[in-house]
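Final report, Chapter 2: Outcomes

The project's central promise was a pipeline that accepts a single protein chain and returns its three-dimensional structure in a standardized token representation, suitable for archiving and comparison. That pipeline is now operational. To close this chapter, we reproduce one record exactly as it appears in the project archive, with the input sequence first and the structure output second.
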Amino acid sequence: MLDIGYALSPRFPDPPQTDYRRADVRALRYDLFCGDVYLADTEEDRELATAWGWVPVLDFAWALCDIVERLDRDPLGSRSAQPQYAELDFTESTDRLLFERRFGWVEIEAEWRPVGEKPLSFAHSELRREARDFLHDLVADLVDLHEDLADNPAVWTLQSRFPRLP
């Protein structure tokens, strides 16, 4: 089972004068809500986690949802033997998460992990559902911290673009 989580960093707090209601997409994606993220396989007790403290957490959730959709471009979907690739790069680092989908399964590798370490593997449908749940749960948490964020049109658009799945 896949678990996606985060922790906000006390070392990189958001500027106190931030107007969350009017923050633009760039600020939401790259300048605010820094911390660390992880993807965990709870059945195998393995995870891919950052430990840098500066990862823009909302951007990670947003990018992960984008990647899951990019991995689903093959018209054959889960029947496709043709691999689909995507990567998530961390802007302040050369490290990346690498995604490969084949036959409905997605393998996820982190470049900062030791060579030869087995990638995490999840059903594409599970990754899609969990990524969207993570995005919505994260936004709810951030709105609890900063109420004005609930009135930001970019956040509305993001949530409507990636609705929760049943």
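Archive annotation: The chain has a mean pLDDT of 94.
This record, like all others produced under the grant, will remain available to the consortium after the project formally closes.
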